[in-house]
Amino acid sequence: MAVSALTLQEQLVPTSPRTSQRLNHRMLFDGMQEGSVTASTASTAGPLFDEMPRPRSGMGASHGRAPRSGEKTASAAILALAHASKHAEVAELFCRLQMDGVPISKFMLPSVLKACARLRDSRMLRAMHVLVIKCALCQHVVVGTALVSAYIDFGLMDDAGKAFAEMDEPNMVSWSVIIGGYVHSCRWDEAWDAFSAMQRAEMHALAVSLGFERNTTVWNCLIDMYSKCGDMDNCRSVFETMVDRDQVSWNTIIASYVRLGLCEEALDMVMQMQESGFTVDRFTLGSGVAACAHLADIDNGRAFHGYLIRRALDTDAIRGSALVDMYGKCGLTELARVVFNRMDERNYVSWDALLSGYVENGQVDLALSIFRQMESANIKANQHTFVNLLKLCGNRKYTEYGRQIHAHAIKAIHQMNVVLETELIDMYAKCGCIEVARLLFLRMNERNMISWNALLSGYVGDGQPAASISIYRQMEQASIRPDQYTLAGLLSLCWYQGHLRYGKQIHAHLIKTGYETNVLWERARVVSPESLRMLKNLIV
User: Fold this and answer.
1) How far is residue 257's CA from residue 259's CA, in Å, rounded to a whole number?
2) Which of 74, 244, 288, 308 has minimal Cβ neighbours within 10 Å of its Cβ?
3) pTM
4) What is the DSSP code string of 411-474?
5) For residues 330 and 16, what is the distance between their CA atoms, to the nearest angstrom?
6) What is the pLDDT of residues 82-124, one digit of tens each?
7) What is the Cα–Cα distance from 196 to 206, expressed in whole angstroms?
8) Distance (Å, whole) CA 123 – CA 512
9) Sign of the four-CA dihedral 39, 45, 48, 49
């Protein structure tokens, strides 16, 4: 057994040399198996350790200065043990060094972190992570990479990702380690995101190395690249470090904020742009209207609309569509229709914006009327159109409408995507046609978490506990996690129908996944105010 994490954590608190001399070193290794330090290890590392001069100061890190001879000898001893795969001895020697006040060196930490992984001691690894942070070495690429690799060995990919994010400038080895960890854990989306981030970092570094810091066009392209990859931090960083900014720079950063849903920041940037002496053009206005639509900010939206009218841009297809979308999201569908009717030219985006406004405001008849007008105007509906319409039909009252829309979709769409198929499952389940929902689910070529949750919610809503539990178990086998609202409904179903055994199984799963508090709050809220008060008292 390796040196305990508790022992290592105790070493995070600096001790004076006088105090450390009084400590019983035997106590330090009480958690280790008898004879864990072998004779060969003693013969190899012992002489090196014995030659180390004892420092007069407490524990500290040696980064930022040249290591003293004692630190070099300590690092050499640990490296020798690590090279011989004597990982328990590495951990023990490291603790002895800390007891004797030898400063921490960035050269010894990778070997100690590797020892934590080989000894399967996750508590010791977390204690080492704390120590690395205290010594301000988590940004160091070699130490950081070793920490990431150790977490990956335990399968703790979330912790590995956080440790990776702490590194200042990850190198090719660092990227390879984190990408390999995601692939090994079958987390394909994160693996692809990491690979894409690595390529972006390489592209950015290449632009700098080739001397393009003053080339505004190249920097504008970097802003756009980071934005389209969802990396707003680097997007903002590039903008702020630009030597020269032009109109395109401002429009690109504003559009980036809108694209990534940071619409308040986008409107702030419009103000900063004008304060910097740049004028608002049609591209800025388009982004500004889109930001107001996301925020349902009718006051600023009207201001942008007036600006567009004064420049005769409100009838333009792009800006007009943005205005229709903005008024629809603000609940002013009549004004949305007025803007729509004034447009010189209408395309699919214009029609879809108007249709979406009616859908979001629950105006079923008007939405279906617009859909018929779209067909008359030879505007071909796509998958997004049908997804929008199906959202209106999640009620038994509109079951027949839902069936008709499904029939239209079959005729118009050659191969439905997972979003449309999931919306059909959700619609039929909410309309009480649970068997139809199940058949559609079984026919899907691709399923995601939302698809599973839609089917499970359908069975829960239909009051079928046995079938609900069966689907829940299939989700577990497929490594699909139900959302907290679905689980709350499932617990409520077990509550009402007296299925205590099923309820206990689900509760146990919630404890394992860390969902317990959120789901129980939701379940209590659904069941009754009395149970909510009981849960409050239980938690507090």
Assistant:
1) 6
2) 244
3) 0.59
4) HH-SS--HHHHHHHHHHHHHTT-HHHHHHHHHT-S---HHHHHHHHHHHHHTT-HHHHHHHHHH
5) 66
6) 788 888 888 888 888 777 777 777 788 888 888 888 888 888 8
7) 15
8) 18
9) negative
